[in-house]
């Protein structure tokens, strides 16, 4: 199993970023996919989830209305569109899948600062 995140970077408050996670080594279209984040000095927290068919999504209260998770099963890719970014969104963002065990990517750093 391999999960490779990309799309992080430095953005000003109020700006947008789109993260991507390309998956391989398993039947991507059969599993829900999640995004987590870990801010400096804090525990990793769940951000969003999308079901295997992309029909249902859910979000942490802290990002609801600002972030959108989506997936492209033809490309084995899950995205996280992040709008109206705040300094408190600064974190390393991780892609995650669970089947038998927890699998994680190496993460992509998002820094929201002026």
Describe this structure in words.
Strands 2, 4, 5, 6, 9, 10 and 11 form a 7-stranded mixed sheet that branches. The radius of gyration is 13 Å and the shape is globular. The protein contains no helices and 11 strands. With 114 residues, it is mostly beta strands. Helix content is 0%, strand content 54%.
Please outline what is shown here:
0% of the residues lie in helices and 54% in strands.
pLDDT averaged over residues: 97
Taken from the alpha-carbon principal axes, the silhouette is globular
Tally of alpha and pi helices:
0
Tell me the total number of β-strands.
11
What would you call the structural class? mainly beta
The percent range for helix content is under 10%
What is the string of helix and strand elements? EEEEEEEEEEE
Distance between the termini: 37 Å
Percent strand equals over 45%
The poorly predicted ranges are none
Major beta sheet summary: 7 strands, mixed
Computed over alpha carbons, the radius of gyration is 13 Å
């Amino acid at each position: 199993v391999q999960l490779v995140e990309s799309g992080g970077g430095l953005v000003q408050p109020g700006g947008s970023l789109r993260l991507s996670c390309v998956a391989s080594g398993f039947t991507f279209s059969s599993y829900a996919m999640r995004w987590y984040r870990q801010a400096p000095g804090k525990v990793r927290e769940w951000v969003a989830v999308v079901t295997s068919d992309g029909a249902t999504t859910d979000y942490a209260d802290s990002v609801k209305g600002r972030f959108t998770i989506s997936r492209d099963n033809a490309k084995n890719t899950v995205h996280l569109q992040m709008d109206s970014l705040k300094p408190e969104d600064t974190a390393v963002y991780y892609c995650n899948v669970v089947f038998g065990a927890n699998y994680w990517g190496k993460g992509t750093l998002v820094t929201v600062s002026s």
